[in-house]
């Protein structure tokens, strides 16, 4: 889940990032700014974290920083994966952030980490028709995964909560019950809505497709799955789909966004999450604090969190 930079000191990397971005008072020319500064750390309790800094490619000058943390928590195995990726697509810089929460195993979530953004960035219409490209890439990734999984006994699946920075826009695409929340002047703004079987529109879609939901401790599709959209889960097709819901937001005015698995959101509300980290300027520290707070509040799930902060001039 973590890059090969795990063993580098996060503190040293942050210091290097600060040094490279600060202005010089002497006459020596400043070194060219690196497009992406990566830093990672690992501590004894298996909480992985890291982050980086890059620059926005929209009409306004500015940069963003991002931090991620992932923690197995009280679960016996780790089924959360995440990805942070900065790429050039058709001459434009695009940042991709995603959290993938597996169920029935980690196979699907790991597949999404390795393939979803690769498939999306290689879509021929990604820049000119981004929303259509997102829908098509998500659906095709699901098809490709199910084809690769033929013959495997275990029926695994995964959510996907993603945010892409493209020009002056944030494009959020969500499948399942991981979640993306933005902060505007300290106010929590949901950028995704959980796909739960008891959502009236989701229930209607499932029943019209010939499926059903029943109460089994919580509402479940076919009495099995507690989310109504996911990648994988071949035995529950066509009721459980990987069709993303997409929301577009202007970066201007957004302080930061939080992308996290339900191990966080089960115990921390949108408003609480924003309040907890609104004064923490280090995105990695913010992601770690959210995970620590969720664990302290009794979260029994894997917990993964990505925080992206904006600094516009």
TrEMBL record:
<feature type="domain" description="PPM-type phosphatase">
    <location>
        <begin position="65"/>
        <end position="310"/>
    </location>
</feature>
<dbReference type="InterPro" id="IPR015655">
    <property type="entry name" value="PP2C"/>
</dbReference>
<dbReference type="InterPro" id="IPR001932">
    <property type="entry name" value="PPM-type_phosphatase-like_dom"/>
</dbReference>
<keyword id="KW-0904">Protein phosphatase</keyword>
<dbReference type="GO" id="GO:0046872">
    <property type="term" value="F:metal ion binding"/>
</dbReference>
<keyword id="KW-0378">Hydrolase</keyword>
<comment type="similarity">
    <text>Belongs to the PP2C family.</text>
</comment>
<keyword id="KW-0464">Manganese</keyword>
<dbReference type="InterPro" id="IPR036457">
    <property type="entry name" value="PPM-type-like_dom_sf"/>
</dbReference>
<keyword id="KW-0479">Metal-binding</keyword>
<dbReference type="Pfam" id="PF00481">
    <property type="entry name" value="PP2C"/>
</dbReference>
<feature type="compositionally biased region" description="Low complexity">
    <location>
        <begin position="10"/>
        <end position="24"/>
    </location>
</feature>
<dbReference type="InterPro" id="IPR000222">
    <property type="entry name" value="PP2C_BS"/>
</dbReference>
<feature type="region of interest" description="Disordered">
    <location>
        <begin position="1"/>
        <end position="41"/>
    </location>
</feature>
<protein>
    <recommendedName>
        <fullName>protein-serine/threonine phosphatase</fullName>
        <ecNumber>3.1.3.16</ecNumber>
    </recommendedName>
</protein>
<keyword id="KW-0460">Magnesium</keyword>
<dbReference type="GO" id="GO:0004722">
    <property type="term" value="F:protein serine/threonine phosphatase activity"/>
</dbReference>
